[in-house]
Design brief:
mainly alpha; two-stranded antiparallel sheet
Length: about 525
């Protein structure tokens, strides 16, 4: 989302530069702003464009040109193609011989029928000159425009061209209609394969999914290549497309051990889970036990199912892993806790003495899930553990009973000399307790070197009910005034002044707060106004 916002902002900047400077054109704006610095080269052309930037550029030019209080005009072709008046857009398409192709593609989804049909004819003429690089350049933007009312036309034409049903705009005078005869601009099978391979390596997710869908529809890949692409894909949705195709190919042509091993080596859990289920058809169900300790819950569930289908017992296998200190691991404990009964809580409690912190944290998480958390005497020392995961899980176990814990002991754990994760765990428990101790810790930690802990502490200070602390007798006015003064880097001056009034703090009740507010220019003006009023009276 951050990159999309940046692309939209750059499109707006390009539109503003174009409308304010009449001599600024596409060579100065769109190439510098709307093209990525890491542009890929494909057959000698720059093709990887920012589709969100072009859409934002079109919308911003139209907005700037329609403002009545400060109309901005430009005679550039880019501005005329995005003009609010449809007659201006249609005239720009009719007069210019080489307009920007991506703006022409946007006009192909225009809401004015005359502009829309003329843009499609112009696009056909441009694409017919050199279809292979042009088609690859149009895909990312066409997929975004496909969500519009009239934007599905470009996507349908791209699909028809790349799938070989007919040449895209080969006869540009008959846009969107299949050619009855062979055209010199028709794509060959090799050209379509090159374009799809290029799109399959794109960084844009919709483009990769589009290319994968068309490649699978062509049916030109073998089962091992399908498995390889599934394992190399980082997008779960695209990986699922390749995986389903690989499983279908193995179901039709028989199992392939190399393809199964490739699926099992993927980084995407859904692809690995499909590889585990494919072990049964390949006659390798005995290998299910090694996947019971996978880092993904989906893969572990598939491994348990496969082991049961083969006549094994996942419960007995997990108990054997947990009983052996050398074989037990974090995910072995997590997988056992996913289906173990509450009666196995003693087995998990014994793992709290394991030397590996990840195993201890997994055991604590399992005990918390079983509602069998250990005593406070066992959990409190774990708040000081050197492993961040152990301290975090111990704090989560103690959070429901935080009110009965020793407040001074928790406050001492937030001291600057403690480790970061120990301070963070203790502060979570102080927040659950509430009271003046949590406020003191929040004020102190609001200046912590760690940005995450500093932000959480600052949010606590800003949302604190200071008046409630005074009414409940948790602290005196002087102490609350000192805490307010220490929170000056978190609370604005007007909030400090407002809370001082609500708390009933008078002058000289808190010297630090008085000195802080006296240095404010607004407060100094108020003091001078009061002095002059006394003279008038």
């Amino acid at each position: 989302m951050r990159l999309i916002r940046q692309d939209i902002a750059q499109g707006h900047d390009a539109a503003l530069a174009l409308m304010r400077h009449a001599d600024t054109g596409v060579s100065d704006v769109t190439r510098a702003v709307l093209l990525r610095p890491d542009t890929e080269v494909f057959t000698g052309r720059l093709l990887w464009h920012r589709p969100e930037s072009w859409i934002a550029f079109d919308e911003e030019v139209r907005r700037l040109a329609s403002r009545s209080y400060e109309p901005l005009h430009s005679d550039r072709i880019e501005a005329r193609l995005c003009h609010p008046d449809g007659r201006v857009r249609a005239a720009a398409l009719a007069l210019w011989r080489n307009p920007p192709v991506l703006l022409v593609l946007i006009r192909c989804a225009d809401w004015v029928p005359a502009v829309r049909h003329r843009a499609r004819r112009v696009l056909g003429r441009i694409v017919a000159k050199d279809p292979e690089p042009m088609l690859a350049a149009l895909v990312p933007l066409a997929l975004r425009l496909g969500r519009r009312e009239h934007g599905a036309w470009a996507v349908e034409q791209l699909e028809a061209s790349l799938s070989g049903r007919y040449s895209l705009l080969a006869a540009w005078w008959r846009p969107g209609r299949p050619s009855t005869t062979w055209s010199w601009s028709s794509l060959t099978a090799e050209q379509s394969a090159r374009i799809l391979d290029h799109l399959d390596r794109a960084a844009d997710l919709p483009t990769r999914r589009f290319a994968a869908r068309l490649t699978l529809a062509a049916g030109r890949l073998g089962v091992r290549e399908l498995a390889r692409r599934a394992a190399a894909e980082h997008d779960p949705a695209t990986g699922r497309l390749w995986t389903d195709a690989a499983l279908a190919a193995m179901a039709a042509g028989g199992p392939d051990d190399e393809a199964v091993d490739t699926l099992l080596g993927s980084r995407v859990p859904v692809v690995r889970a499909a590889g585990v289920t494919a072990l049964r058809r390949a006659g390798r169900a005995a290998e299910a036990s090694r996947h019971l300790v996978d880092r993904s819950a989906v893969v572990r569930a598939c491994a348990r199912w496969l082991l049961r289908q083969d006549g094994g017992d996942p419960y007995a296998h997990h108990r054997g892993l947990l009983a052996d200190p050398e074989q037990v691991s974090r995910y072995a404990v997590t997988g056992f806790c996913e289906f173990a009964p509450r009666a196995d809580a003693p087995l998990l409690s014994a793992l709290l003495r394991h030397p590996v912190g990840a195993v201890q944290a997994a055991a604590l998480a399992g005990l918390r899930r079983m509602d069998a958390t250990p005593d406070d005497a066992v959990l409190l020392p774990l708040l000081d553990d050197g492993s961040a995961s152990v301290a975090r899980e111990a704090a989560l176990c103690l959070r429901p009973v935080a009110r009965r814990l020793d407040t001074e002991g928790l406050a001492a754990r937030t001291a600057p000399g403690r480790r970061l994760h120990n301070r963070r765990a203790a502060f979570r428990l102080l927040q659950a307790q509430g009271g003046i101790a949590a406020l003191r810790a929040a004020v102190a930690l609001s200046a912590d070197p760690d940005p995450g802990l500093r932000r959480v502490a600052a949010d606590t200070v800003q949302g604190w009910d200071w008046l409630h602390a005074l009414q409940e007798g948790q602290a005196e006015r002087a102490e609350l005034g000192a805490l307010l003064a220490a929170s000056a880097h978190v609370l604005p001056t007007h909030r400090l002044r407002w809370w001082r009034t609500r708390l009933g703090l008078q002058e000289n009740d808190c010297a630090e707060l008085d000195a802080l507010l006296t240095r404010s220019p607004h407060d100094e003006d108020r003091r001078l106004w009061r002095a002059r009023r006394e003279l008038w009276d």
